[in-house]
Amino acid sequence: MALAPKLSLALALVFAAACSSPYSSTGGTPAPSPDLSMTPPSPDPRVGLRAGWMNAAEAGWNLRVVSKTPPSEKFINQSTPGDRRLINSDLGFIGNYAVQGNYSGYQVWDVSNPRRPTLRTAYVCPGSQSDVSVYRNLMFVSGESTSGRLDCGLQGVPDSVSHDRLRGIRIFEISDISNPKYITNVQTCRGSHTHTVVTDPNDKANVYIYISGSAPVRSPSELPGCSGAPLDQDPNSALFRIEVIKVPLAAPEQARIVSSPRIFNDLTAPPRHAEPVDSAQAAARAARAAAAGATPGGRTRGGPTQCHDITVYPAIGLAGGACGGYGLLLDIRDPANPKRIGAVADSNFSFWHSATFNNDGTKILFSDEWGGGSAPRCRATDKYEWGANAIFTLIDNTMTFKSYYKMPAAQTANENCVAHNGSLIPIPGRDVMVQSWYQGGISVFDWTDAEHPREIAYYDRGPMDSTKLVSGGSWSVYWYNGHLYSSEMSRGLDIYELMPSGFISQNEIDAAKSVHFEYLNAQEQPKLVWPASFAMPRAYLDQLARSNGFGGDRVSAVRSELTRAEKLSGQRRREALAALATQLHSDATGAADQAKVHKLATVVGELANAQR
Amino acid sequence: MQPAPGGRGGLTPAAQAAADSGRPAYTRADVYFMSGMIGHHAQAVLMAGWAATHGASRAVRAFCERIVVGQRDEIGLMQRWLSERREQAPHGDASHDMMKGMDHSKLMPGMLTAEQLAKLDAARGPEFDRLFLTFMIQHHQGAIAMVEQLFGAAGAAQDDNVFKFASDVHVDQITEIERMTLMLAELSASPVKIP
Questions:
Q1: B103/B131 Cα distance (integer angstroms)
Q2: Is B194 at the interface with chain A, CB within 8 A?
């Protein structure tokens, strides 16, 4: 493979002082020259960044900042960095809007111009975590804390039992997104830490919401029927289950809980991957005990009591549930009645947090939010496998562990850092993902090779404070219609753009940008579909050139033929492309990467058919 | 735009935060929980720290390492919360006052008595594993009881810092109890009989 010129050190974007930073708060930055090296900058410029709230030093590699927008004035406490009441949380997207949850409500940003997001509304309605989702004219907001009020007031709910308290889901009508209307809510026993919107390909009249709640169960005097007793003492316990809310789209005010599936019942603990053992005999004993699934007292274990996050992938009828000490695979073809069909455990995992499928549904990645996002878990002394991602292949509903991935730059003890939310970047033919690591910044990595995930781009700031841990960092970062949007807990909304590099070509970025979502809730994974474009075959050609999957001469010849075809029009272009597609399918036989050459041929054929 | 939210004369969250200098109201129950949990965690760190010297199995040692790292960081978090509010923050090291002359009346739920601690400290190998898991399950159950007690106290856990930390303790320790219960079952399953 011909390596690109090595430019990494010179071009790593390290900015030691805010005043000289081209990362301005509005208006974006001039595009720096691309770094085409296949070697990360060394030493890692993320290590040792100067601290600061809005003026921390920054380091970026293979992406650039398009804009950094501080929280609106209602949602920032100028005197107290990291005020927990004003923490930004998750993101949802609809049309040209990004909705950013906040512990005090949510903010709606118009991102038609990503260089200058403009605020449409800052809706005050306290209640952590305010994770947000959108669907058509509806918005859903999670409330878990005991201080959340039905009337959205700021005064909290001091009484331990109160009918003013909201723990569950708030539903807003957002036809006029600048003026959301709070139409109803659905109360749940443990509140909603997170939630997942679930669409059913066979049911266009309703949308479903899976509720995950991890806080203690509230009193039955506050919400009738709530019980936190073990399952063997109370078959109606609110533990050991999730809640499913059904929202009739024609009458969303009638949203209600329709089922409380006990997806953990009869869970036999799977063998824990990476469990250190002292002897074969001890291992055999452990396996036997695990299979028996019984406690020493003879009582059947209940398994996890809850899930933290459930990522659904309706196009393939599966969900990944990150539930207590387990990663679960669920069949969601009947969305109101999800069924567990697989489970994994891992000794290096503390608390299973979330899941992401690859687009083909042949892999699943689980993350471990060890320490709940409040603790520094990326210090030089913290293990690579702890507070990381685990990558599994997914074949015939069987999950098989392949590797761990953790953002590799050591952070200080004053930076909360652990694996958190992310999403796929729609580069065709590859599994590339962007992920938040709180004050560890954001990390873009390629997990196409499940055994060897590799970081290919990043962005990081110095700590909020150099003397103590002040909460901040990226809560979630998602790809949405061409840009990366990061919800910075204490610093606002960041928007980034991928730069072409030794790992991602401009053609691959162009192909990724051709994918259009009407809306996005990252926990409801959309099937990525690429429209026909010249960027698609060129992206595959770049991949084949990078991997030597197709003869170098053939790659050049196909590039030339695509250039020639692009200059033609109408019938002549269609014929040229159709002929090329046919040729490529027959060429595939002799190629090192036959599958990819067939993919190339297919997208050329699709491009031919798309010509008028 | 929405009407002003109820209470506090329609303050924005920013104005409210500025008015209380970023320190939302808290109660004695919050302080009792945050300071009591420091001693509780400190004892867990002490117990888990013995794994390396008391012949624990590799699986128990790995589990203990996680408890030491995790709970030490959480002690720091509780101490920061207390000192930022000018409340007395207990030191987070159990080694000097846990063993001798320990005042039982000060023990938070689930904590080991001096006798139980001494018994664990005297155990080695598989017996240490068994005792450690048994005692740490008891210890974790106490932490969960403390969280539930906190949530049942009027006015408590209204500060998001306290709510977040207490719910994290709740969910993490429930998860760990399940793990330890399983490890204990694995330990006590009868060995394979080789004919």
A1: 22
A2: no
The verdict on a CB contact (< 8 Å) between A214 and B151 is: no
Helix axes A570-587, A552-567, angle to 10 degrees: 170
Structure-token pair, residue A228: 């936190």
Contact residues, chain B, for A304 at CB < 8 Å: 175, 178
Q: Please name the amino acid found at residue A418.
A: V
Q: State whether residue A518 is helix, strand or coil.
A: coil
Cβ–Cβ below 8 Å for B154 and A376: no
Tell me which residues of chain A, numbers 469 to 488, contact chain B at a CB-CB cutoff of 8 Å: 469
Q: Are A63 and A457 in contact (CB under 8 A)?
A: yes
The closest of A154, A545, A148 to B18, measured between CA atoms, is A154
Does the structure's ipTM exceed the value 0.85? yes
User: Closest by alpha carbon to A612, among A560, A564, A561, A577?
Assistant: A577
Q: Where are the beta strands (DSSP E) in A511-568?
A: 519-520
Residues 258-317 of A with CB under 8 A from B: 269, 275-278, 281-282, 284-286, 288-290, 292, 294-296, 301, 303-306, 308
Q: How many CB pairs under 8 A join A and B?
A: 216
pLDDT at position A585 over 80: yes
User: Would an 8 Å CB–CB cutoff place A87 in contact with chain B?
Assistant: yes
Cα separation, A529 vs A273, whole angstroms: 34
Residue in the block written with tokens 């659905």: A186
More confident residue, A167 or B9: A167
Specify which residues A217 forms β-bridges with.
Answer: none
What's the rounded Cα separation, in Å, for the pair A462 and A357?
Answer: 31
Strand A363-368 with A309-313, pairing: unpaired
Q: Distance between CA atoms of A12 and A14, rounded to whole angstroms?
A: 6
Positive or negative, the Cα torsion across B73, B75, B77, B83? negative
Peptide bond connecting A129 to the previous residue in cis, omega within 30 degrees of 0:
yes
Place of tokens 């533990």: A239
Is the model's pLDDT at B97 over the cut of 70? no
According to the model, what pLDDT value does residue B10 have?
64
Reported as a single tens digit per residue, the pLDDT across A588-602 is 999 999 999 999 999
Q: How far apart are CA A239 and CA A589, in angstroms?
A: 56
- Contact between chains at A214 and B163 (C-beta distance less than 8 A): no
Encoding tokens for residue A364? Answer: 């699943």
State the DSSP string of B22-80.
T-----HHHHHHHHHHHHHHHHHHHHHHTTTTTT--HHHHHHHHHHHHHHHHHHHHHHH
CA distance B52 to B7: 55
- Distance, in Å, from the CA atom of A293 to the CA atom of A301, rounded to the nearest integer, reads 7
**Could you tell me the two tokens for A84?**
């927990």
Window B:44-63, CB contacts with A under 8 Å: 57-59, 61-63
pLDDT tens string A326-376: 999 999 999 999 999 999 999 999 989 999 999 999 999 999 999 999 999
What amino acid is encoded at A185 in this protein? N
Mean pLDDT of B2-18: 65
